[in-house]
Amino acid sequence: MDAERKEMILKIEDISKKFGKTTVLRGISMEVKKGEIMGVVGASGCGKSTLLGVIAGMLAPDGGKIMMNGKVISEECNVLAPEKRHMNMVSQNFETCSHKTVYENIVSGLKKSWFGKTEDGELVPEVIKLLHLTGLEKKYPSELSAGQRQRTVLAAALVTKPEILLLDEPLCSLDIGLRVEMRTQMAMLFRRLGITVFYVTQDPAEAFFMADRVVIMNKGRIEQIDTPQNCFMNPKTEMAAALLGIGNRVPGYARVDGGEMIDIGGGVCRTLGRDGIHENDRVTVRFRAENAVWTGAVRRENSFPVAVEGSFFEGDHYRVMAKMGMGETVSFLSREYLEKGTEGYISVDGGRVYVYRARTAA
Ligand SMILES: Nc1ncnc2c1ncn2[C@@H]1O[C@H](COP(=O)(O)OP(=O)(O)OP(=O)(O)O)[C@@H](O)[C@H]1O
Question: Whose CA is nearest to atom 2 of ligand 1?
Answer without folding.
Answer: 19
